[in-house]
Amino acid sequence: xxxxxxxxxxxxxxxFSYVATAQTVIDQVIxxxxxxxxxxxxxxxxxxxxxxxxxxxxxxSARCQILDQVLVSKLLYNQSKLDSIEITDAEVESxxxxxxxxxxxxxxxxxxQFEDYYGQSITAxxxxxxxxxxxxxxxxxxxxxxxxxxxxxxxxxxxFFADIPQDSLPYFNSEVEIGEIVVLPIANKATKKTTxxxxxxxxxxxxxxxxxxxxAAKKYSQDGSAQGGGDLGWTKRGKFVPAFxxxxxxxxxxxxxxxxxxxxxxxxxxxxxxxxxxxxVSHILIRPEVTEEDIEKSxxxxxxxxxxxxxxxxxxxxxxxxxxxxxxxxxxxxxxMTNSVSGNTFFxxxxxxxDIYFAIDDMELDSLSGVMEYRGPSGDNLLRVVQLQSRTxxxxxxxxxxxxxxxxxxxxxxxxxxxxxxxxxxxGTTFISVDERYHGCPxxxxxxxxxxxxxxxP
Length: 458
Prior knowledge:
With about 450 residues, the chain is an alpha+beta fold. The chain is about 45% helix and about 15% strand.
């Protein structure tokens, strides 16, 4: 029996979205898998989220599919504990901060808008979701561990493609691959000096007792931790960039650093507590202002680099590594951009950023655009030139033209089948109990039927 038909959709992962839609329910345990419990509120929150993302009201039976997904997630989470899958506090904190920063970037950095939407402060939101995110990461890691060794051969790819009925072959719109050389405009020395002096003035106010570090962070700091008084939470070594980490670990509890420069700007750092190799720090971050003159200087530099590529002084890949900004995703892929939706390097032209779309509209292969300004995921103003590296015409899928996509689809199908078999086997050796009101769900009956095979009581 192939298990868990809804597995391909999601593993009931927690997102920040449901805060605004979740309904209040009287909590009770509705299922148990090993040492993990599923609460009625877990199911209702997921149902409310799914309904909020649907154009139509969901039928009551949708709860059966959602419960199936939650059961899968809890089974993987339970197994991750049994297998001692590890995750550090730093990893959790890093992903929490990244998600908060990403949400804030969608809101143009407006903390008040964030708090209005979530109904609480950034610090409270992080506290609410920290353990949920830890579980989500462990579920993902356990799943990756299970399917890690799954590979496909060329023969399997050909068979997978051959088994697709001719009239069911996907039709691909025109797609392109885009390379980019990205430059981060740097503030000039005078602006940096002004920023350092401002932080030194803030430090003086803190040292004289004119204002507390926490109040200063709320007033002056330019990152998402400001609302929480600059508190970055507990973390171990390896989370922070080297300059920041070195300064933080050299402090005594209750003391504050001088001005520290990092790739993010300039900081004042306060060590709040230390527990062995784990510290809790707060900071005040101020980024030096990048002026129009700074941007134009970087624009001229990037234009010169593009010209040297055009006349074959060096190739595009070398230009990316030698002159490109190493904090963008494309830097580690020879400048080639990755489609965040598909995970590959192909973009339908309609999905491109408008500036890129119009820049490549009449470009020839391997040619470069002019310099374009854009805002990066972390809110930085960046500059880039793009290269059109490939272009396909609209076509029905073929093995010759779309091998990479078909290979990916083949591998995903094989992983799905392997994971389904693995889950079925684990059900037979794991204690499973589900509230009787859900026994009518077909997917739940599969879970209980397999558990009965080894005498596990539903």
